[in-house]
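Final report, closing paragraph on structural work. Over the funding period we assembled a curated collection of sequence-structure pairs, and we close with a single example.
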Amino acid sequence: MLFWQPYTEHFRVPEPDGSSYTRDVLALPIFKQEDSSLPPESETKNPPFQYVLCAATSPAVKLHDETLTYLNQGQSYEVRMLDNRKPEELPELNNKMVKSIVRVVFHDRRLQYTEHQQLEGWKWNRPGDRLLDIDIPMSVGIVEPKTHPSQLNAAEFLWDMNKRTSVFVQVHCISTEFTPRKHGGEKGVPFRIQFDTFAQGDCGEYTEHLHSASCQIKVFKPKGADRKQKTDREKMEKRSPQEKEKYQPSYDTTILSETRLEPIIEDAGDHELKKSSKRTLPADCGDSLAKRGSCSPWPDAYVSPNQAATPSFTSTPLSTYTTSSVPDSDSSSPNHQADPGSHGTSEVSLHSSHLYELVEKQLSPTASIQDAQKWLLKNRFSSYTRLFSHFSGSDLLKLTRDDLVQICGPADGIRLFNALKSRSVRPRLTVYICQESPQESPLLETHATNENGEHSISSSLHVYHALYLEDLTAAELIRKMACVCSLPLGTINQVYRQGPTGIHILLSDQMVYNLPDESCFLISTVKDEVGEGLHLILK
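Its predicted structure, as stored:
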């Protein structure tokens, strides 16, 4: 049975008649670890808050590793919110409310990079469900609990530090749901339960960060955590006393370890200056990243673009940032032909503009960080600009296909890899055309010298132009032919294909659909005898 301690009491200094709960807290390895970079214990400042998860830790964790706690899916677990301040510490918080945001996040750094994609996949498989909930009837001392539909893994509430506060949380996702082809709970991925606490600022919003802490958990199907705990305990009992000394004992409660915060500098894609915000990335205190994953940064949904970051669910949803305005390209294929905006456009200018479009879509190895950000935005990768905020052009081009799939997920990873390698989409149909009349292209005539030394026209050199069709329609083919032949589109009345015995067959969508790939045609222009305009005949 666990008993509450007075709020003025500190767990770092045990009393002679302290309860077993206090002794357990003192014996945890997170309080034993020392770091040479930290100040002496006499100078170390105690954390103002402490969060205690009422669930036993696993006995199968090595001595200097972070504790691991097993939870059952959907079961309510108590988290006690303790005021650990000294009498003279933070007096401005006396008789005031603070806000805490509780989240379940990924422990592995690899999954933290793709958290949005992972959660979207979970939401697709389990519509209407949440990853984290607060059991409001069982909770004590919390005020205004809130959840947001777009943040399925987070909840927030207010609480008074001078009163007993206890929040009951439920985790509905299991560890194996994020492990492909794994069906056993033991092989699931670890999560973290993270608490971020904020004080009320001058503007009345809870924007001043006070404290963050988290612990490592694994979630099993109902009753699965109890079975796993029993299995670990039986395995440890079979070990020798020397081997047992290398492992932590199992504690009745789990203390969330405090984390310090480091600011993140984000590079804006369309600005030369870097803007620093109050968004922070908690880093682990006194332990290596190889053993312990750092706390997750606050989601984009908590950040307002026009003001300081306010970790509140009332700010703009995440979808606003993932679907930000991105200049769409004219076509997904680099073979896209420009629509003739003016009737006098020459073939050379069309070719040069098309070549410029191709070069613009390619990312240069010499591109700066700002250029790489603009390239990501232009190619519809706006949701990954923050992830690649410190990548230059050469850094992005060095990433392999497997790297991008692991970071961005299968769909966006393959799309980004193809965009980086400039892989064009193969056109559905390729047609070669040439104007039959030599008067239309006098520069293409070749001259020969006869016996008397006079120059005469010997033959006309036929040069073909390639048309790449992505839409197999007659209108698409006519538009591209008018562009190449420098003919106003409005002057073309009908287009015919010369068939057997010289008959003229009207060009239709079905005919274009059944044209063989790489077909060759000579274009002959005939004036309309009835009205104005021209007829085109494909021979």
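The longest helix spans residues 347-361. Residues 86 and 401 are 53 Å apart (CA to CA). We thank the funder for supporting this effort.
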